[in-house]
Amino acid sequence: MKTYAVTPARYRRLAEITNAxxxxxxxxxxxxxxxxxxxxxxxxxxxxxQQNILFNLITQNDSNLNMEIAQDSKELAEASKRDSTAxxxxxxxxxxxxxxxxxxxxxxxxxFDWSARSMSDVGTSHLWIxxxxxxxxxxxxxxxxxxxxxxQSRKNKEAARKAREMAGADKA
Length: 172
Hints:
Layout: H1 8-107, H2 119-167
Helix pairs in contact: 1-2
Transmembrane segments: 89-108, 128-151
Keywords: Membrane, Transmembrane, Transmembrane helix
Protein name: Cora-domain-containing protein
């Protein structure tokens, strides 16, 4: 085996090479760190941009859902209005025929002699009672219904006005 003697001059030269190589590695490390800092400095901006995009997409999706809900609500309101109109007509017809039905039922009770020899004996003498009670009862009942409808309409308009005031929509 051959041994190499390390002379002081050679030791200095080896130390210089080692120091130079060490410095070169340190410079490369620092340059690498600077490159990474540049890369990571841009990441924050990209992350913020991605957050903004996601927020905008979620907001857009919510807006589309709200539009669909509003459309469904509008269709439901229109259907309710049609049903309400039909129910009002049924209630009106019922109100018109209810007193007459009551009186007819009343006359069908065994209070009258329906076994008379001719219908003119039973019908003519008692038929005026039907008309005398049915017509005024119908008029009075229709008056109550009309008054109730008018009162409800005024209450609904007042409630709508108050709701608009509370919402701040009635600024005119």
